[in-house]
Known about the structure:
The complex is a heterodimer of chains A (257) and B (234).
Chain A: H1 2-21, H2 30-33, E1 37-41, E2 45-49, E3 58-63, E4 67-74, E5 77-82, E6 87-91, H3 92-95, E7 98-99, H4 113-117, E8 121-130, E9 133-143, E10 148-158, E11 162-174, E12 181-196, E13 206-222, E14 225-237, E15 244-256
Antiparallel strand pairs in A: 1-4, 1-7, 2-3, 4-5, 5-6, 8-9, 8-15, 9-10, 10-11, 11-12, 12-13, 13-14, 14-15
Chain B: H1 2-40, H2 42-54, E1 69-70, E2 73-83, E3 89-100, E4 105-115, H3 120-124, H4 133-136, E5 137-156, E6 160-177, E7 180-194, E8 199-214, E9 217-233
Antiparallel strand pairs in B: 2-3, 2-9, 3-4, 4-5, 5-6, 6-7, 7-8, 8-9
Amino acid sequence: MQRITFAIKASLLSIVLFSFLTPRVYADDDESEDEYQQVIVAEAFVEFHTGPGRGFPVFHIVERDQPLRLIKKKTQWFKVRSLKGHEGWVHEDEMQKTLLTKDENFKAGTSTQEEFTNRTWEYGVLGGDFGGATSLTLYGGWNFTQNLSTEFALSQALGNVSDIRYGNISLVHQAFPEWRVSPFVKLGAGVIQTKPFTTLIQTLDRTDEVVNVGLGIKTYVSRQYFVRLEYVNYTILTSRNDNDEVEEWKLGFSIFF
Amino acid sequence: MEIRIQHIFLKLKTGLKLNTGFAIAFLGCCLAMPLHAAEEDPDNEQATVSGSIFDPKVERREVDREAIDTEDWEIGAYYGIISIEDFGTSELLGARVAYHVTEDFFIEGSYAQSTAGLSSFERLNGNVVLLTDEQREYTQFNIGLGFNLLPGEGFIGEDLAFSSSLYLLTALGGTDFAGEQRSTIMIGGGYRVLFTDWLAVHLTLKEHIYDIELLGSAKTANDLEISTSIAIYF
């Protein structure tokens, strides 16, 4: 532990030092000019902010017909370079005022409800209640049509008496994918592992199969994310005579691509 | 003699006359040629003139949105100290990943490890051991949401400005300690300074809240952690 700690400390320190020593590349460098893509300002002007956020001050403007080089993007902000070599951050809404060619607008990347409807991949994290225990779920989904998708979810529920882990593969059907608040139903199967806490009861770990049925809503918020609320009813196929039924409520946040 | 000289001069004169005639003709031709050429294609010149007026010399290249370097992901390592309730203060080592959804929000997941020390009870009663070495291994993980409460810039001297942010964190997760994993709520906050566009240093304060049962009595534990981390945006 001591050694690892020392090694990590040393490497962190060297990264910091290295970053300060690295010479910065300035606009005069002709070679770098060609790696970046270019758009033309079409409205009266666009504003350059000092940082990637709405509160950062505007320090420069670039006028109509001037080219902008696209250096990088952070969340909704583009880092651009003007012809004179000024570098600043421009919001993607401002970038909509730029042109690719004579009459083609540059689509700066704001996702829309339509893109939400036609999404292919989605990933999210959900928190909630699994039969009285606090549950945490990570999931990924592949939308192979607008209505149908398949999802893989890994969850953990930590209660007062046991540590429960479960993984499920489900088929999700969204009847009205174009709605902003879109309902869905799902059907799935998986495995559940229950590990009772040793301080309370001396029982063995159990691994059972589980089937689930659920319903919920996906609500498009903005950009490329949406909120998801769902109810799932799990039937745990135990080796005993009775099957266990567990209800789960969860709320989460997802990103789509 | 005179006649001879005159004859020579006359010869020269005629020769000169002829030469000048040729020269004038040649010059005339030379002058006429471009004039003639200019007369021949007046459209060409018009075209070049109009070209410079109406064609704004836009480089017709496609902008590939995918090719723009996005820096929304952040990955980092952190080192700090954590006060594990009843078991003293220990060093903590962790890793974190964050995805910046907007300029305001980010999703963050982290995992950290530590080793708990001796409780006061164990220290006072030299031969009492509450936990085995294995049970003393402390790990925690959580996934949650961060909010940039006070974004801004920090200045060093006159010429250096670094963008920074004071942020809040809340997360759900688990703490594995004393042989069991307990559901944990984490609340915290931090200060982040970006030294370059891609390199950040964080100073973070976190509070981990979970229920624990040791020796049969249940209680809520509060573990306070202070750490510093280096993160890279990619």
